[in-house]
Write a structure and sequence with these properties.
This protein has helices at residues 2-27, 82-89, 116-132, 147-155, 173-180, 186-189, 221-229, 247-259; strands at residues 46-51, 57-63, 71-75, 98-102, 140-145, 163-167, 206-212, 234-238. It is α/β, with parallel strands linked by helices and 262 residues long. It has one domain: Rossmann fold (3-Layer(aba) Sandwich), CATH 3.40.50. InterPro entries: AB_hydrolase_1 (IPR000073). One of its GO terms (molecular function) is hydrolase activity. Residues 72-186, 197-246 form the AB hydrolase-1 domain.
Length: 262
């Protein structure tokens, strides 16, 4: 019995050690995408480079806003891409609105390896780029999907922006992991936290939360909790939508919200 218990604890320890060592491979699966995303920009967009604080040059898709329009800085999900984000989020933009669709370090041929700190630097590089185009903070909307909501909520603290859009947001990455793997010590294991629940109340501007009612990856209860932490936020549940099929339901909600944004 003693040997069995010892073997059990050793096995559990090895599994936890493996999970700790490989966690970023699991958190950021989109790094397997190649650089072909940049060969032909979406209609109306150009490929631009973002300069990070740690001297990386990251490619992104950019379309300048016209006079009177807003500029959306959008961060994609962990297995997603800037190109895919542009393919559906662009449909929510008004005719005068512009957008910057960011691709993280290590994604789509970009240099570097992703981490929470790295993605924070990527986001700041995106904001610097947009500001250098002469866009005032009051004309900028920050947005993100899934893990991109953790990036967006952090960047939203860096200025007085027009608004913040969070689609399929989680309260924190450990909270989301605990919903999927309740038997693991996620708060101790995870190095990257993306703690939106500690930031949303401090974000400037208006806030829009959209979540699929049938989301099996990040339960809608996460956005419900964020809405309680930010009582003036607009929270919309998309009935019948899950995590990766939320686009059709989210688009008209985003379009209406952006069109009525002061």
């Amino acid at each position: 019995m003693r040997n069995f218990i010892l073997s059990l604890f050793l096995t559990i320890g090895l599994v936890l050690l493996m999970l700790f060592a490989l966690q970023r491979t699991m958190i950021y699966p989109g790094t397997s995408r190649d650089a072909s995303d940049w060969s032909a920009p979406p209609a109306g967009y150009e490929v631009v480079q973002l300069a990070t604080e740690d001297e990386l040059r990251l490619k992104a898709f950019f379309r300048p806003a016209r006079e009177g329009g807003k500029t959306l800085i959008f961060f994609h999900g962990n297995g997603d891409s800037a190109r895919n984000s542009a393919s559906w989020v662009d449909g929510a933009l008004g005719p005068d609105d512009g957008a910057l669709f960011v691709s993280y370090r290590g994604y789509a041929g970009n240099p570097g390896a992703p981490s929470e700190e790295g993605l924070k630097r990527d986001a700041r590089a995106a904001l610097r780029f947009v500001r250098k185009q002469g866009v005032d903070d009051g004309d900028i909307v920050i947005g993100g999907f899934s893990i991109g909501t953790g990036v967006a909520s952090r960047l939203a603290l860096d200025g007085k922006f027009a608004g913040l859009i969070l689609i399929a947001a989680f309260t924190s990455l450990p909270d989301a992991a605990s919903a999927a793997f309740p038997f693991l010590p996620n708060k101790l294991l995870l190095r990257d936290k993306f703690t939106t629940k500690g930031r949303i109340a401090k974000a400037s501007g208006k806030v829009l939360l959209i979540h699929g009612a049938n989301d099996g990856i990040v339960p809608a209860s996460h956005s419900e909790r964020l809405a309680r932490l930010r009582p003036d936020a607009t929270f919309v549940r998309i009935e019948g939508a899950g995590h990766n099929d939320i686009a059709a339901g989210a688009l008209p909600v985003m379009a209406d919200w952006l069109a009525n944004l002061d």
